[in-house]
Amino acid sequence: MELQSSSFLIISLILIVPLLNLISRFCTSRRNSRPKLPPGPWKLPLIGSLHHLSGSSLPHYALRNLARKYGPMMHLQLGEISAVVISSPRVAKELLTTHDLAFSSRARLQSLAIITYNYQDIVLAPYDLTQKVFSYTNDVICRAAFGKSCGGKDEFLPLVIEFGNSSGGFDVADLFPSVKFLPTVTGLRTKLMKLHHKIDQVLNIIIDEHMEKLKRGQHGEEDLVDVLLRFKQKGSAEFLVTMDNIKGITLDMFFAGTHTTAATVEFAMAQMIKHPHVMEKAQAELRHVFRGKDRILESDLEKVSYLKMVIKETLRLNPPVPLLLPRDCKDWQKVYGYDIPPKTEIILNALAINRDPEYWDNAEAFEPERFAESGIEFIGTNFEFIPFGGGRRMCPGISFGLATVELLLAQLLYHFNWELPDGLQHQDLDMTEILGLAAKRKNDLYLVATSHKS
User: Fold this and answer.
1) Which residues belong to the annotated binding site for heme?
2) Where exactly are the transmembrane stretches of this chain (predicted)?
């Protein structure tokens, strides 16, 4: 009996030791194979990290506050979406240079899919400057796209504004893509589809007019629609253009150009009203350089430098797209020492990057002079300043948008003096933001304009 017990013990030890070793190796293997994700806030079942974004702050400010605690590269679970938020120039540079190709795919968002035709693409009485600026930028885009001021502007412009205002922030249907009924429950998809249908009808009329003009052989100065229709008629296999491509690219111009351009001009004027010495300096430069002129041409703007600094500082503090369009990771990547699994959504927080105190002195202050000797430009290796993104997905309309902003601000500052109505003081100006397709002021900017005699 004792022999049997001893034998059983020996056999058990012989079996248990390798079994324990196998279990240990399995656990170690599991631990080692688990990706080293960036740090991030604690998560709840189902919603993940969404509760950290549920306060009163807009998403780009909430994410910046979280990054101050968890670091420049932070992991969030946004419903079903695994996301990594970049809030530092150093990490942005690594991601947009070394790993740019792996992160060049655009994330699929419900509102973008609708407005781009399923991604077939490539804004002395108190004077409502907000609406006037938006209308002006819409006219500029109309002329570039259609060759004339929009005939249906009165109908088209409110649709552009409403769609843009409905498309910002995190949509719950994008965060839980497997729950197919969510777009219907939230009502957003239905609303956006109705707006898109109305916009589509206007575009059909405009494109039909262009096609009739081409059939009649009327050739003049080509606009964007003319060029795209010409490519469509050629039917090149290398550059196949469909009608949805034409509509998607045209709407790209409207929604990206109108909203972001108008928001930038409005923020620039608001910042200068809040900092009167900046407005005085910008006006003094313009009125000295263009003394006696009735009109300022785009070609003349090379002669002014301070206005360019004002625009740069506005875009640094108030980037029109503070959370740059998200990207998808194609395959396993290691960035900044952390693993990024495939299909992770990458969010670049331009607001946090542009205000990083490690790179900017007095980062929260509006100081255009900081750009006087810095050599920092919109395009280049200056990843501490990315209002238009970087790498392969950098905004393709930078030159057009900046020219529009610069020319409009120059005209406003050269021809008029501006002040707040009803005896309001500059320090009383509310700079609260809301988020749609672009971040913009919550309230329209009402100013009193008086003509300046040059």
Assistant:
1) 395
2) 6-27
